Amino acid sequence: MKHIGLALTLLISATVGTAQITDTKQAQPSKTASPKPRSSTNNDLEVKERQTRARSLLMSLSTDARTFRDQTLRARSLARIADALWQVDAEQARLLFRKSWEAAEVADQESEKKLQEEINNQKARTGAFAITLPPNVRREVLKLTARHDRAMAEDFLAKLVTTKVDTPNSPTNRRDPLSDRPDEATTQRLAVATELLEADNIERALQFAAPALALVTPGSIDFLSDLREKNSTLADSTYVALLNSSMNHPQSDANTVSLLASYIFTPHMFMTFSGAGASISQKGSTIIPVTVTPELRATFFQSAATILLRPLPSPGQLDQSSSGVDGKYLVMKRLLPFFEQSAPPEMVESLRGHLNALNALISDNARRREDDWINRGIKPEKPPAEREQELLDRIDRVKTSAERDALYLQLAFMLSRQGDVRAHDIASKVENPETRKRAQAFVDSSLANYFIDKKLSDAALDLVHKGDLTRIHKAWILTECAKLIAETDTTKALEFIDEATDEARRIEPSDSALPRALIAVANALKVLDRTRVWDATFDAVKAANSAEGFTGEDGQLIFRFQSRGQNSISNKPVAAFDLEPIFRDLAMLDYDRAVELARGFQAEGPRAIATIAIARAVLSPKNTASQ
Asked: Secondary structure of 376-443 in the HEC alphabet?
């Protein structure tokens, strides 16, 4: 019995042990399916709660924004709220977009009226004018709407008033869809499409631009050049379609060819002609021809030759081309070197024969034209030293001080754009004392911007201490220099920040430049010392409440030079002056503290901008960097 009892005990023990092993093996997979740790769950709940609060914050702001008296502020605020809300409440966002468009229409009308008044005032004072264009609020609303609802954006475009601008030398009752300046809706469409393209939303950008790409305009060709930098296949195929339609269009003329040629030979530079006069526009400082397939180049030559070789109007018949005979001659003369390089010989001979025939019909002025402007992008530009010597030679030959001053100004401005410090000395040779003082300040500002763009901190700092710069310009340069050396010399960088703060404090409390300068300090401290960012931003908020006209956005440095008969203006956008970047980042550090800080703004504009930035950072944290 003892043996039997012992056996039973061992058997039971073995069974229990086996069961335990089996249960353990079966339980192992459940570890991967176990609930998330409490801390992770809590984080998710906090994020959702914060997003709910951010949405509520935006809804409350949208109610206030509908009553803003400033139509630009109302339109911008409602559109940005709609953009931020779209993912969580598309219907409410649509309603806000429509309210925003209504305000934008009023805002743009008011801006146009003020702009014309400023032009007239400047003309009355100096005989010329130099202006900074106001923001195009409808374009801003269109851009945000097009990101989400193409049909609504198309509806907004349809509401734009179609304006017709006649091409010189053409009948007033003719609408040339290929050569005339496009209507406002087309211009706005391409501008919005370009902004979508810059945000790498290629498919939506091309869809939105498509109706405008049936026309040959500087805007449509410029868009295709931008598109080619991102997707050459799409751009080239669209361009070929435009070549084919232009070749068969009865109203295509020499200006059509000139614009089409820019896509291949002079990207982002356009030249059109009205008689013997030329109109030139250029985006960017360099002109670099693109490399295209032989087939595409041949298609261009065929289309261009077909248009250029069309017979002239019969004697007594009205010339309906936008270029006229003189303009056609100059386009052919300008483009002939490209044909001679790559086109079939028989095509080149036909063009030469047609050019010789035109030579007997054109004006003496067109026949004599052989200047740098006409050959721009075709022949290599003269080296800076040669252009400088030409101006110096002209200075030696002029007889009056006024003529000499004008040439000194031209030379000083040219050198400053190249970062040449001799520009200041050249400006000092201007005889008129008031003109000389204004010119030196303008030159120093241009040089400082050049040095910052090129990351030449030592040269920029030298101008801070010796140049004729405004307080806000000095403060901005110091903050930029601090960021440039942040990784290599933090101690020195913080000294620059303190110096920038001192410069800012010297600005009048009522001047809106003071809060902008302090915001630049706060943005620099994000890189250098985050523990000081909150206090720096708080100082900017206090300054904003005492400053007149501070909006919290559109930060820029504006430099003007005005003299009798000569006006120049340069504006440099400065994102570091804007509230959106700093409050977006503060929201990610401490949401509640950022909201409390934003509520400290007394003015509607800064408070709205800061609030939207905070809410956007919470609702779309992955997209805030691109907004």
From this structure: ECCECCCCHHHHHHHHHHHHHHCCCHHHHHHHHHHHHHHHHHCCCCHHHHHHCCCCCHHHHHHHHHHH
Q: Is residue 385 part of a domain?
A: no
Which one, of 231, 235, 285, 241, lies nearest residue 264 by Cα?
235
In a domain, 510, yes or no: yes
Please give the Cα distance from 524 to 528 (Å, whole number). Answer: 7
**Short-list 369, 299, 295, 297, CA closest to 332:** 369
In 127-231, which ranges are continuous DSSP H helix? 137-148, 150-159, 184-198, 202-209, 218-230
pTM score:
0.74
> What is the domain extent for residue 122?
42-134
Q: Which residue has the tokens 């006069």?
A: 277
Give CA angle at 322 (352, 133), nearest 5°. 125
Between CA 619 and CA 60 the distance in angstroms is 16
Judge whether 93 and 148 are in contact, CB under 8 Å: yes
User: pLDDT tens across 401-449, in order?
Assistant: 989 998 999 999 999 999 999 999 999 999 999 999 999 999 999 999 9
For residues 83 and 219, membership in a common domain is answered with: no
Residue 29: CB atoms within 10 A of its CB come to: 8
CA-to-CA distance for 248 and 239, rounded, in angstroms? 15
Sign of the torsion formed by the C-alpha atoms of 208, 213, 215 and 216: positive
